[in-house]
Write a structure and sequence with these properties.
The structure holds two protein chains of two kinds. Chain A has one domain: Rossmann fold, CATH 3.40.50. In chain A, about 40% of the residues lie in helices and about 25% in strands. Chain A contains ten helices and ten strands. Chain A is globular and about 60 Å long. Chain B has two domains: about 5-155, no CATH class; about 185-325, no CATH class. Chain B has helices at about 5-20, 25-45, 50-60, 60-90, 100-125, 130-155, 185-195, 200-210, 220-255, 260-285, 290-325. Classes of the chains: A alpha/beta, B mainly alpha. The interface between A and B is large, with 49 and 37 residues.
Chain lengths: ~250, ~325
Amino acid sequence: MTAALSVQGLSAGYGAHRVLSELSLEIGSGQWFALLGPNGAGKTTLLHCIGGLLAPQSGQITVSGIPLQGRALEAKRLLGFGCAPERLPDLLTGRQCLEIHAAAKQLRTLDEGTSSLVRAFEFEPLLDRFVDTYSTGSRQKLAVLLALLGEPALIVLDEAFNGLDPASALALKRQLRERVAGGRSSVLLATHALDVVERYADRAALLLGGRLVHTWEAQELAALRGSAAGLEGAVAAAAAATANPSSAA
Amino acid sequence: MGTHSTPHAQARRLQWRNVLARHALLRWSCAPLAAALLAALGWGASRPGWITLLRGCAVHPLLLAVLALALTAAGTSRHKRRVQGRLALSWLAALPIETPLLHEVARLPLAVGALVLAAIGVALSTGLPSADAGGVLLPLAIGAGIGFVTGWYWRRAERELGPGSWYASVRRARAGTLRASLRPLGYWALARTRVWGRPRVTARQVLVVLLGLPMATPGAQALAAVAATLIVWHLLALLAAVVRVAFAAAWWMAPTPTRLGRFTAALVHLAWLRQLAACVLALAALAAFGRPALLHRGAALAGAWLTLCVISGATACAIAWRRRAHG
């Protein structure tokens, strides 16, 4: 079965500063993958490479088997990318942003999933207001709506729950879970919210110094849910083991 | 105040040091630029015209003092309000230190005063009688001093400044509907133009033009000059808006499967139609003068401008597109 996302030997950075080194990663179809790591580990850089915002120095990215470098348009048709809320266009309304992304994805109108999320987010009154009048949470909602538009095969989100009120966060988690469970989408979520990862993710990986140093499979995550230390303890232990391999051995 | 202002001054010094360390061109051009400015100041201050002006000012010390007072008071009041706003939002605002408001506000008038003093000093060394120098310096110093104190305590009614979108209108809001279209990309550029063309900005251009007209200019000509200024400003703002939005939109649209051609057409065509409308309006106004030669020249200029707009808009889109990683 073709992986929803495959990253092979990816190296990327900014000028002389290399952030990701020979990183490889695979996300199966209908899977929620959580990317963990401290600030500056390279999570956003990896997501920017997948979103086509940053050119990798080496390596290959494929979305559902379609290489992003060679067949970008085809690959991006399968991609829903949640951009940083502060990079949304200030002088467009929420509706106009949705219209542009819908046209780019060759949709005629909003899909049912996104429409229900608009209602759950209570976003309708904000649709005809300019983005520069939005609060941080409202911007986050719009960024998420744009990413989920058109039922993409791969949804890429960076700290998507930041600034969301509890009701909206719950609606988003349920929506993502529903799409993943139905095999309609896979999710790549970069986050620090370990409780979300424990409860909703199928797999998780720890990114440290531009490399994936540990991956937790579904069974391991399920086991961690019941343990005292939980994922928090497991992440700390994995980070310590990476920093000092001899003591871990 | 000296020790209290240290974190702010230190932060500014370090930021400047980092900027200079990062940009080699700026680092190497700073000293020559400063030397060139000082040389220009020295040259200008040693001109006979400057000396004549100073001698003329020395004859009207009261007028000079009142002028210095008014300008310093207005400038200080405005500058203080801006500095207060900046300090309130500073990343150092939460520190348990006194905000260096007086220090920050006084720096600008002190710098201007030092420049004026230097210019008078140069004039003094090149033939300005010391009595005249004193006759200018004393009223200037008194006026500026009183003006600074007045401006410091002068509380003008503060206007609430809203976000940029206050000046842009919402287009085609259709409750409950969503029609997929790249057309709003063009609205983005138009909205940016409206923000740049808001009355607060254009009023300054118009004022400069009106002040530059000779006193005997007939009203009709003054109005024509104002109209021409507004049209030129609108045309320039439209072009700049397209270029700026092209880069922001290309980044924002990078993860979507959009082609460069569609992107460029959506972004450029509305702004270009606006350019065309403004040019037609300007040509119609020129036609009213009844001078065919002027109209022909205007038409040629408008054609060249519209071509330039298409080329620069498309080029900006292409460059912005290529800056993205893929596709």
